[in-house]
Amino acid sequence: MEVINNKHIVEYSLTNHYTKLIMTTVLPSNIQEKIVEAAEERFRYYGYRKTTMVEIAADVGMSAANLYRYFSNKEDIGAACVERCFLRMEEVLREVIVRKDISAEEKLLAFILNKLDYIYNETINNPKINELTEMFISERAELLNKKKQVIQSLIAEILAEGNRNGEFAIKDLLNTSESFASATVAFGFPLFMFLYPKDKFQQMAKDVVALLVTGLKTR
Question: Which string of DSSP letters, residue by residue, matches 47-86?
Answer without folding.
Answer: -STT--HHHHHHHTTS-HHHHTTT-SSHHHHHHHHHHHHH
